[in-house]
């Protein structure tokens, strides 16, 4: 009987020590992590993907500088998934990128064959502006939203900014 009670007390102490250790740690943002967030949009625009283009200061592909790439659905927070091939974003996704130090150019694009149901005859590829990112910069989250014409209709483009976009029920597109 003594052996069982001692074993039970020992297990309780190990469990309590482990719980204390896990709850006692401070949760901090990883200083080498950049979060690129594409909020939800109205209609079928959520299903149109945009791919990340990651370049160094000279315009060379800097994908090898990405140490770790993961994504999460904002509707299911805290559950990250690893990218298998290319980094992309759909509406309601956030990409978590661990990056080696330096200055980078970040842009997003959507190839013509991936633009369904918004095929614009005059555009081959939807491109965004170029966002200049420095790992020493305090901005740790940037936002990607679609662009729209003066009437508020999507016009086949993307806008990247460090400021949160306007909201109503969904993200309002950026008007040119």
Explain what this protein looks like in three dimensions.
The protein is built from 1 helix and 12 strands. The chain has one helix spanning 2-24; strands spanning 33-38, 50-56, 66-73, 81-82, 88-89, 93-99, 103-110, 126-127, 131-134, 141-148, 154-161, 174-175. With 176 residues, the protein is mostly beta strands. 17% of the residues are buried.
How are the SSEs placed, and which strands pair?
Blueprint: H1 2-24, E1 33-38, E2 50-56, E3 66-73, E4 81-82, E5 88-89, E6 93-99, E7 103-110, E8 126-127, E9 131-134, E10 141-148, E11 154-161, E12 174-175
Cα end-to-end separation:
78 Å
- The number of distinct helices, counting runs of at least 4 residues, comes to 1
The share of residues in extended strands comes to 35-45%
By helix and strand content, what is the structural category? mainly beta
Largest sheet: 7 strands, mixed
> Would you identify the regions where 5 or more consecutive residues have pLDDT less than 50?
18-27
| Residues in helices, as a percent range | 10-25%
- Characterize the overall form: globular
On the 0-100 scale, what is the average pLDDT?
77
The overall strand count is 12
The SSE order reads: HEEEEEEEEEEEE
What Rg do the Cα atoms give? 22 Å
